[in-house]
């Protein structure tokens, strides 16, 4: 049976039917934007000084120094890779039951509300804020970074997994229910086959994000290569900072190409 597609273009429905109100809202948005830009205070003397430092940084980036601070760079890199892998594995493992509980079509309402609250809390707090909190609790080092990235992974994977479960083909789930299957059998035979390829892709994507975030949270003392980068920048060692940035870019590119290949293989 062939699907009939429309042959003529139809204007989509408008949220605001009054033309005068639409124009007034558009003008109001433009005025607000102009006023907001006008409140930004720019210190042009600092801009000029910053441009000079930017030139020195670009020069150092083009002539990276991998040897002077190699011990710090290698230690920070190993910390970042360790935090990235462990936090992704632990975060995904915790996210799976939370994501299932946050799916309205398979979880009781009480469980749904609790799991949604956990996901909302994780997504509401940015990684740098969580890192500062864990550093204050557990001190400087990779453990605080591991907890931060795990916490962020739970909100990311849990939300997207829950949405994928809610968007499954219900016909397959109803067929499994009709056999008298238990709730665990429903999850295993009706839900899991439909969401597993997407879950693997999301996990690989989160692995990439966690490595980049490990460089950011290291600036506040949560371990990783970000600490070495912050030290190099604070000492104006732009050649060493350029070397660290090149390492980060190279690893992110390798992760991007590898995850793309794996996602294609899974599909």
UniProtKB/TrEMBL annotation:
- One Pfam assignment: BPD_transp_1
The record lists the membrane-crossing segments as 20-40, 85-107, 128-157, 238-257
- The principal localisation class reads membrane
**Annotated ranges, domain ABC transmembrane type-1:** 77-257
Q: Which UniProt keywords apply?
A: Cell membrane, Membrane, Transmembrane, Transmembrane helix, Transport
Give the UniProt subcellular location, in the record's own words. Cell membrane
Family matches, as PANTHER family? ABC TRANSPORT SYSTEM PERMEASE PROTEIN P69, PHOSPHONATES TRANSPORT SYSTEM PERMEASE PROTEIN
Record protein name field: Phosphonate transport system permease protein
